[in-house]
Write a structure and sequence with these properties.
It contains 25 helices and eight strands. By secondary structure, the chain is an alpha/beta fold. It folds into two domains: about 5-285, Aldolase class I (TIM Barrel, Alpha-Beta Barrel), CATH 3.20.20.70; about 290-405, Conserved carboxylase domain (Cyclin A, domain 1), CATH 1.10.472.90. It has an eight-stranded parallel barrel, surrounded by six helices. The structure holds cobalt (II) ion (CO). Cobalt (II) ion binds next to loops.
Length: about 500
Amino acid sequence: MNQAKHPIRFNNTVLRDGHQSLAATRMSTAQMLPIAPLLDKAGFAGLETWGGATIDSCLRFLGENPFDRLRALKQAAPQTPHLMLLRGQNIVQYTAFPNDVVEAFVRCTSDAGCDIFRIFDALNDPENLQTAIRAVIESGRHARGEICYTQSPVHTVESFIEFGVQLADMGCHSLAIKDMSGILPPAVAAQLVKGLRKKTGLGVTVHSHDTAGLAAATYLAAIDAGADAVETSIAPFANGTAQPDTARMLALLAGNPRCPDHFDGELLMEIRQYLEKIYLELAEFTTPANERTDADILVYQVPGGMLSNFRNQLKELNMSDRVGDVMKEIHYVREALGWIPLVTPTSQIVGMQAMMNVKFGRWKNFAPAAMDIALGKFGRTPGPIHPEVLKLACELSKQEPVTTNASKVLPPGMPELRRKVAEAGLPETDEACVLYAMFPQQTSAWFKGESVIPAPAAPKPAPQAPPAAAPASVRRMVVTVGGITRNAIVETLP
Ligand code: CO
């Protein structure tokens, strides 16, 4: 098939990545529903409505059942395929889950109306993806294998294409280049799209963020190189750390043989006007720093969703004046930990470790989750771990490096989860089980009608009161040396 003759397809991200990147994932289902039928009518090839941080945010901050959200959105926008972002074996959390839990999650999500699963692993480790890909294929849905784009001495165009071939061999129906930090140069995008199409014959979608101002140009180059689709949002939940705005992208494509001609400018404007109102309602979660285009990201490679929270966290830790140092330290930590791409959850872990390195000295306070990366518990890192860092991790954790993927060794989890939800007085459904597996307290609270925006759980060790929306665990984490759980770390950076 000659893609170059077909109009480019746009997937719309405003109901997931758009507000995750620019408004800390706080758009509620009630705010989404009035606009869903219009988005459905607009002519997008897909609507990204679920996954990523939205599930956590529904339970933790919005008092919502995420599966109810998906069902409601599917009903309100039934014609356009719905997309979700799935973190492979980690589902939408930060640690590996047993295969049967991943499979149950995919079944529930498919039943609730998700059509296309964007499946990624922060390390691009195929072993972390195989269960999820298989489960999506078995549920009869579309498996889109995501290649996390990053730059390092060990990441080359050839290595990404090789990974794409592996994803195709695993049965993915299409591929995507996931440029979570918005650092993918147009010329490289063109090489990747051409190479992936040639080697796999699959459609390639490009997903980028406009953080550094590259995304729209990158999309244009990818479109000219034969990409199947690009992902756009709608202003004001667009541009900056989110995807380029749809109307802007259409304007850039004017005169291009692949410019789609079915979008109605007035309808897009109507959607935008509604979203302007919602953006104002979410003002406390938005910041000009995320709205502007800043090429700093090209040095630091911090993804948009992370930047959105990171500045607040540093302020909370009284480290606003060390932002530059921490950003530089991120680069060092990343290299020491085998050049892992920075994307949830590694972005949070590397960011937190960099913060602690700057505050306390390098590796003086070695976060358990960072130790786990060094020990191989997240999967194979793209490059080698610095030997002295690995030695330290082994000594501190009293553990040996892991060589077998979690998906091969974790025992089935659903029977135990069923017991636990029954004990907690929750319905013994697969939906309750998979939510409980990832967010036990918040899931219990929702089913018992006790969901509230959480107040800080521990006494405040720091004199500065945090902003209302910031989780308490940030301060716990910094004052506790070595005694923190992985969940405590990641709660700090949703
Ligand atoms: Co994204």
